[in-house]
Amino acid sequence: MIDRLEFLLALAREKHFGRAAEVCGVTQPTLSAGVKQLEESFGVLLVNRGSRFQGFTPEGDRVLEWARRIVGDARAMRQEVHSLKHGLAGRLTLSAIPTALAMVETLTTPYRARHPNVQFTVYSRTSIEVLGELENLEIDAGLTYLDNEPLGRVTAVPLYRERYRLLVAADAPLGNRETVTWAESARVPLCLLTPDMQNRRIIEHLLRDTGVDPNIMLESDSMILLYSHVRTGRWASVMPARLAATLGLTDTLRAIPIVEPEASHTIGLVVPAREPMTPLTAALVAEARLIAPLLSD
Amino acid sequence: MIDRLEFLLALAREKHFGRAAEVCGVTQPTLSAGVKQLEESFGVLLVNRGSRFQGFTPEGDRVLEWARRIVGDARAMRQEVHSLKHGLAGRLTLSAIPTALAMVETLTTPYRARHPNVQFTVYSRTSIEVLGELENLEIDAGLTYLDNEPLGRVTAVPLYRERYRLLVAADAPLGNRETVTWAESARVPLCLLTPDMQNRRIIEHLLRDTGVDPNIMLESDSMILLYSHVRTGRWASVMPARLAATLGLTDTLRAIPIVEPEASHTIGLVVPAREPMTPLTAALVAEARLIAPLLSD
DNA sequence: TCAATCGATAGGCAATTTCTATTAAAATGG
DNA sequence: CCATTTTAATAGAAATTGCCTATCGATTGA
Q1: pLDDT of residue B297
Q2: Is the N-terminal amide bond of B240 cis, ω within 30° of 0?
């Protein structure tokens, strides 16, 4: 029964019988049969098919909702019983938006000190993907913006506020300034994240609000790629202050506060809104609540 | 998996492998094997055994807690999907304390008018049993005292307050009075419920508080039995006002308010504290909220 | 029209589940 | 103290279920 519900969850995120089967580690006929058995046991069609996956029926959507809950509870149960016997152990899977990747360490390092047997998997994802994966129980927690997109059924712990800096060589134009305006920044050729990233949309919005068309020379979904370009002193970028600080500034590279306006956005930990949480997730939320005051400015 | 968790729930309430198996419709070796498989899959012993059932281990208690939740959710899911297709249908199982049995009708009659395809099973139980059955998901809802024993993990809807009357023949001693005191009632030979019933304990307490040792001539767990005795005019009893009214008074039988003190206790609907509830249960709670104002005095 | 994609179906093998029958251990009762 | 009863575990057989490979039919797109 629970296996079948997992089939349904996989189908919801893959929207494709074959791929969903692969994710579940079974063959496509097995997954098809599993879904069909669910349908027979409920006496209702759950999936609209027409030689290909065409989404769920209304009943299917409801079952999906229950499946998330039941599968989540079953996992939490296993984890809790295991923790009772062997202490906190297992793997925490996180997804973080690229600009928050460098902050993950502030959570994982103290967590590991407390619970040395917990392993981590961290993905770099867009904020939309983070929420989708959270919804489908693909990940245990996410690090993303709390104050923009609607978050859905999650528990959120604010961690810090993202503020923006112009990263630019000291000898380049604007390189000697104490502050720059968004309008000035918009005139500099920039390296930014790709447009599917919310950080890019936020920054591009702030730049365009000045009435100037920004000049985006290079875009990537990798912060390392952006930084390695900026480090040469021949490119510039806009990035969150904490990230710039973490990446380290050379004497030729400056991170200049951008004003007018001094924009900021809240970044936080998001976990599925389940009560009770899995022990691993609960410990992560506890850790986040502990370190949040140390990060706020 | 879910079947195994049901085994565990049955074992929790029967405290006996054989009987639990029977309840689940399998043989004893099957249930034994099921529990053992759960233990193996968790890597922890769940049940203390020594040639007979000796309760659960701490881990077993935790798994039991999760099992209640998961099994409850699985049932709710089935019911909800069925309701989406065929409207509210199925069977609602209730347990009520004997003095509340006559009030069940005020809930079931309007419920049935709204949802004609729902069937009912109603048990007469002690208040302790009601809460136990609720805990183990044996019943969908209960009618019992809300203000005495601790209720546990339930949602409660107050319905009415139980007030006490001396049921006595008009030509018997005290039969002509407008009110009687508890002290006076304690001197009349009475028919009451058996001492395992909370109503009996409440009334006996009120009687004894006067300093008089009550004279309880006959006891039974059946209100019908008590009433049929009192109807002869040769016996007396103490019972809730609403119950006396429902049973009907003859011209030779009177229900006299008992004062000093004018005691009362709240009776209400209790359902498992689950969010969301099963559709059948949710509709019952809605009905209870509707009729509660009509019953309060 | 032809190839590719996608999901359903058929048939066979393997794993699992469940049953009956029996055993071992403990509790009960004379 | 011994015989009987009760209780749960075990062994082995039978049935069921689950999953895989191979294939088909339908749809899509070139």
Answers
A1: 64
A2: no
CA A50 to C1' C6, in angstroms, rounded, equals 9
∠ CA B123-B281-B35, nearest 5°, is 75
φ, ψ dihedrals at B33, nearest 5°: -65, -40
Give residue A6's pLDDT.
94
Chain segment B187-239, per-residue pLDDT in tens: 888 888 888 888 888 888 888 888 888 888 888 888 888 888 888 888 889 98
Say whether A246 sits in a helix, a strand or coil. Answer: helix
For residue B210, with 0-12 CB atoms within 10 Å meaning exposed, 13-18 middle and 19 or more buried, which class applies?
Answer: middle
Choose the mutation target among A8, A37, A66 for the interface with B, i.e. most B CBs under 10 Å.
Answer: A66
Average pLDDT, chain B: 88
pLDDT greater than 70 at residue B39: yes
- Whether B47 contacts B16, CB under 8 Å: no
Q: What burial letters (b/e) apply to B114-152, b meaning 16+ CB within 10 Å?
A: ebeebeeebebbbbebbbbbbbbbbbbbbbbbbeeeebe
CB B75 within 8 A of CB B278: yes
Q: What is the mean pLDDT of residues A103-126?
A: 90
Answer for the pair B88, B283: CB distance below 8 angstroms, yes or no: yes
Backbone angles phi, psi at B295, to 5 degrees: -95, -25
Look up residue B132 and give its DSSP letter. H
pLDDT-derived band of residue A144, with 50, 70 and 90 as boundaries? very high
> Of B44, B70, B81, which is closest to A44 when you measure between CB atoms?
B81
Q: What is the pLDDT of residue A158?
A: 95
- 3 state SS of B212: coil
Give the separation between CA A204 and CA A222, rounded to whole angstroms. 17
pLDDT band, very low/low/confident/very high, at A297 (cuts 50, 70, 90): low
Contact between A81 and B1 using a beta-carbon 8 Å cutoff? no
Instruction: Establish how many alpha carbons lie within 13 A of residue B147's alpha carbon, considering only the half-sphere containing its beta carbon.
Output: 11
CB within 8 A of B153, min separation 6: which ones? B135, B272, B273
Residue A224: which residues within 8 A CB-CB, separation 6 or more? none
The pLDDT tens digits of the residues spanning A232-249 come to: 888 889 988 888 888 777
C-beta of residue A241 within 8 angstroms of C-beta of residue A255 = yes
For the CA atoms of chain B, what is the radius of gyration?
Answer: 22
Give me chain A's average pLDDT, please. Answer: 88
CA distance B117 to chain A (A): 18
Decide: B180 and B256 in contact? Cβ < 8 Å. yes
Q: Please answer yes or no on whether A44 and B85 come within 8 Å at the CB atom.
A: yes
If phi over 0 gives left and psi between -120 and 50 gives alpha, with beta otherwise, what is residue A264?
beta
pLDDT category, B62, cuts 50, 70, 90? very high
Contact residues for strand C with beta carbon within 7 Å: A 16-18, 28-29, 32-33, 35-36, 47, 49, 51-53; B 3, 25-30, 33-34, 37, 50-52
